[in-house]
Amino acid sequence: MRVTPALLLAHGAGGAVRANFSPLIPQLSRKRKVHAVDFPGSGTTPRATAPLELDDLADRLVAAAEGEERFAIVGFSLGCSVAVRAALRYPERVTALVLTAGFARADEETAARLREWRRRLDGDRAEMARYLVSVALGEPFHRRMTAEQEAGFLELVAMTIPPGSPEQVDLALRADVTADLPEVAVPTLVIGTKHDRLIAPSATRAMADLVPGARWAELDSGHAPALEAPGEWARLIEEFLA
């Protein structure tokens, strides 16, 4: 079996490597080494004491490559902006980008939902979980859940909100890679999530339009592709990197 360059995974705001990617890792690991790091306040990474910055997260991500000379990066949501910044900061090492459910900068519609998410992070966890589920899950997937499934999922979300979510959502509101995207010089696949109720699908499409030669694909999911369409997401990544 031919081993291809290593792969880095960049998770989204309010997420973690396990939450955003765990169903994909076994398949993605078959032909390459997969590396990832939880951003400050997620997983076991200590919470930040200052506002987060894309450059610092990009450096943390690349440091997780553990000596790999070259690697591709899969970014999800805010992780797309981190991946783009890493590609520009380490052009000799990044071989390709796969950007899923990302945005160049939060448009008015997306920013309003991010601000509401941020506001609710300071309140009741159960209420925050209900809001997050309402915008994270695509409407078709959400509609198919039984009442028992939804109750269990809400409880899980409330229990696993990363402590660093406020800083991560704040960064999502500030992040702007509009000027960076035309400078991307590696093969890039941008994947939209057509039932996304958190990041406007049009914002992801606009991101693709700014990357020279970017390919476009779309998942039949909301803003939780690892839950709603993990097999198809992994297939798109695999086929592009091959």
TrEMBL record:
InterPro entries: AB_hydrolase_1 (IPR000073), AB_hydrolase_fold (IPR029058), AB_hydrolase_sf (IPR050266). It holds the Pfam family Abhydrolase_1. Residues 5-230 form the AB hydrolase-1 domain. One of its GO terms (molecular function) is hydrolase activity. One of its GO terms (cellular component) is membrane. Keywords: Hydrolase. This is Alpha/beta hydrolase.
